[in-house]
């Protein structure tokens, strides 16, 4: 499985394209808002002859959903989220103009994800872990074979997701990290929603919130 990261919008959000040698691809958290950002995403897909088969959100804060409508319409795929984050998604339409995104277009979920489900594309399988705390319906995607987590805004290099937004809770987030992510092998690479990748082992040793 190849992980491609494209960073979009003023929040510097990491949009991920996951694909394997079958050229089937899933898009996770498309943050593309401006036209040039959308064109960059589309060009990568076309240049690599990828077939996008699924559109997933780790969670539905504005910076992670700005490109949902574009990807759904361009690639003819339905949005998949955890049901506990549907209200988070629906609220974006209300506050987007105040955040400087007056042209935001809402894309509602076509289906829902839950812990224990397996996301399949090409020859690849991703396990879903429910990891609330930053957002009420946050999930992460784990590829056991490649030892990779696409982690949204749960765990960052030397930091954690903020918990002062609606539906956030510090204790819940710490529990999610300790009981879900920190049970994975130390060599697992975490690809977060912002900033550089890290590893489980590094964060166990150095993350000031989790020592």
UniProtKB/TrEMBL annotation:
Cited InterPro entries: MBL_Glyoxalase_II (IPR051453), Metallo-B-lactamas (IPR001279), RibonucZ/Hydroxyglut_hydro (IPR036866)
Query: Is Zinc one of the keywords UniProt gives this record?
Result: yes
Obligatory cofactor(s): Zn(2+)
- Pinpoint the Metallo-beta-lactamase domain residues: 12-194
Which keywords, in A-to-Z order, does the entry hold? Hydrolase, Metal-binding, Zinc
Domain of life of the organism in this record? Bacteria
Q: Which PANTHER family match?
A: HYDROXYACYLGLUTATHIONE HYDROLASE GLOC
Q: Quote the protein name from its UniProt record.
A: MBL fold metallo-hydrolase
- Species this chain originates from: Pontibacter silvestris
